[in-house]
Amino acid sequence: xxxxxxxxxxxxxxxxxxxxxxxxxxxxxxxxxxxxxxxxxxxxxxxxxxxxxxxxxxxxxxxxxxxxxxxxxxxxxxxxxxxxxxxxxxxxxxxxxxxxxxxxxxxxxxxxxxxxxxxxxxxxxxxxxxxxxxxxxxxxxxxxxxxxxxxxxxxxxxxxxxxxxxxxxxxxxxxxxxxxxxxxxxxxxxxxxxxxxxxxxxxxxxxxxxxxxxxxxxxxxxxxxxxxxxxxxxxxxxxxxxxxxxxxxxxxxxxxxxxxxxxxxxxxxxxxxxxxxxxxxxxxxxxxxxxxxxxxxxxxxxxxxxxxxxxxxxxxxxxxxxxxxxxxxxxxxxxxxxxxxxxxxxxxxxxxxxxxxxxxxxxxxxxxx
Length: 369
Known about the structure:
Blueprint: E1 3-6, E2 9-12, E3 16-17, H1 31-43, E4 48-50, H2 59-68, E5 76-81, H3 92-107, E6 112-118, H4 126-139, E7 142-148, H5 152-159, E8 166-170, H6 181-188, E9 191-195, H7 227-232, H8 234-247, H9 251-262, E10 266-268, H10 275-283, H11 291-303, H12 312-324, H13 354-363
Parallel strand pairs: 3-4, 4-5, 5-6, 6-7, 7-8, 8-9, 9-10
Antiparallel strand pairs: 1-2
Helix pairs in contact: 1-2, 3-4, 4-5, 8-9, 12-13
């Protein structure tokens, strides 16, 4: 497996997002199967595994820790925390340390390579988190730290206190809104970790208008999966299928290879819950797009409008659906912003920060993703 650097942390070019092992995409595999799948990914060369304290209320960390324990010195573990406004009794540094110690216990390790601030709490200055992160790096508890879904201003302010190793946000062929963050990461030598790089599976090319989603599956509310948008997005799928056939690859592999070719500091972390999907995703690291091929792909993408997207407001609708069925358990789901990509339909620009705050308030818990 080829590798990349998140500042100075070496990871496999394609990593694994582990959230889906607990929720977000329908019934999850059992514990034994999760452990097997993670260990199989390691066998195939994956060294980057992403979890969070909020995934499954800590149970995701337990599973990831169990699966990686035999190969702990060969892998990079990334996890995340949320912080509340500091008080005299509960200052920010105390919160950060307590959250980290709890994660380390669940993961069964004495350190993590990458520790993210999971969303930015507007009541907490990013500098107040950057200071204790620097101390934890010096103490060897973490190798580096990062932010999830932050703005350029938040990145610069935090970086000025303790340099960041990585920024994590949604990024894919269907969601290319990080137009300011990516160049800033390049400027500051910060890695960029792309979650949902296959647009919640849409870029596999296998989604059909009649597909049904149940339970806590986010595709119930993400508008790109509405039947009319599935049909409207077929030109994108067909273009990727033609391109993939010419490369001897799959649409999903081309979608991952696109971002690997476009930015040398970007590493995607697609989720996968079957052997076949793990093999397909990790093999994307071997699909190389020459500069001319990347140019052709970019030109074709520029011609194709994207219909539907994924917003905080949509994700909150899933919570409401589950509440109505009296089966609600808090969902720790990634926020996916929506931006101003030309030709996009089904969304409107929003004021900066409003959706982030809205979802945090609506979910009513501090560890949403």
